[in-house]
Amino acid sequence: MKQNELTLQSNIWKVISASSVGTLIEWYDFYIFGSLSTIIASKFFPSANPTAALLSTLATFAAGFIVRPFGALVFGRLGDLIGRKYTFLLTLVLMGGSTFLIGCVPSYATIGAWAPFIVLMLRLLQGLALGGEYGGAATYVAEHAPQNRRGFYTSWIQTTATLGLFLSLIVILTIRRVVGVEEFTKGDGWRYPFLLSIVLVGVSIVIRMKMHESPLFSKLKAEGKVSKNPLKESFGNKTNFKMVLLALFGVTMGQGVVWYTGQFYAQSFILTKCNVEYEQANTIILISLMMATPFFVIFGSLSDKIGRKYIMMTGMLLGVLCYRPLFDKIYQTCAPANKTELVEQRITNEKHTLVTGSTTDSLATYDTLKTYVDGSRFKVTKKVTKLAVAGAVAPPAEVKKEMTLNSSGYWTLIWLVGIMVLFVTMVYGPVAAFLVELFPTKIRYTSMSLPYHIGNGIFGGLVPFVATLITTIKGTDHLSGLWYPIGVAALSLVIGTLYVTNKKVKEEN
């Protein structure tokens, strides 16, 4: 008996490892686009209006999320018809190929409007692939795991989304240091993280080819009970469709906005609203993720004992109550207005560069560096185009602000972001087990994938774009964008508290 238990435990860890490696790489592929959004904005969109270019990039980033539900339908159906293994093997190839090709697309300066169009198409393919990947991996692991330990075992799959972001930041920062900041931002260094994905995908394909089909699906197939029309059975059946809607509006909608607010919008906010230096900002996110990631497993395991609902609802509640004070504390920690300047340490440099052209005389660059009593530094770089022809209209000045925090401010931000990632682990750690147990085996892949990817892909994926867009509206401030995730999480919290239960569907259904 003990030998059988050891064999089963060994097998489940092999399943988790093989599934997690592929899912981690898919998340890495998906998130390097968001992690490089400010650079991509300058490469693939007109640079005359940096804010519009950034919003266009965030919209393209969000487009990948919007199509994820369609990927869930297409690949979820395949997964319930032909099996879990081969379906998410296909999604892995599709994701890796799309990511690699993004690294090959010529810039806007080279091919004009074709550049953003091609990148958008590849981004949509990424979204379709991810729409099929997650449901397959989560279902595959859950169907190998003992029913009383599903929260614990599936929580390891849940860590891959955050670890994918972690890996993307590690790769980006490493390549940035190796090739140099100038080559990374102005040259082709930013392409290397995309091109590297083809190697990672190749390794994952080899690992996944050795995997076996899920035992529960294999049993259904042997008994001839595989669904003939997963879409109809998932969404045409009134009882099951009610579960799909409950999963979406009572759980994954709120879980999605908490996930993307605590990680992606926090990163965007620190970079664009607080103007923290690029490497320092991303290191803050890295350390925060590293500190909080073990809690995915802790809360997943805890959900096996006390139920999934209570932990997820608590995470949403904390997000609703704490986002504004947490983000405001981040902003105030970085704000130059809250610091005492050492006037004698202010340094101003002016540099003129001749630019070829019939109307351009020179490009004047003004660097102002301010040092503060607390040891932090604030650099403002202003580039002004001077024209030789009288009456010609010069482009608006390009202004770049960069705050380098002292040690105290740096660690303050790490702890603040870490708290928000802790909320993420509460809503995300148990959610895979919750979704798997909500639906029958024969339509599980399809049924769980759709609410998950609408909640995360649309409601969650739109957080950086919608929140940033809100802050551009006249009369708003740096915290106004938070009303979107707070409102969505609050609505999901109310619905989930009232209607979600910890009841599990019977496996034989």
Automatic annotation (TrEMBL):
TM annotation in the entry: 12-33, 53-75, 87-108, 114-132, 153-175, 190-209, 243-261, 281-303, 413-438, 450-470, 482-501
Major localization class: membrane
This protein's UniProt keywords: Cell membrane, Membrane, Transmembrane, Transmembrane helix, Transport
GO MF annotations, alphabetized: transmembrane transporter activity
Cellular component GO terms held in the UniProt record: plasma membrane
Topology relative to the membrane: Multi-pass membrane protein
Name listed for the protein in its UniProt record: MFS transporter
Organism per entry: Flavipsychrobacter stenotrophus
Lineage: Bacteria, Pseudomonadati, Bacteroidota, Chitinophagia, Chitinophagales
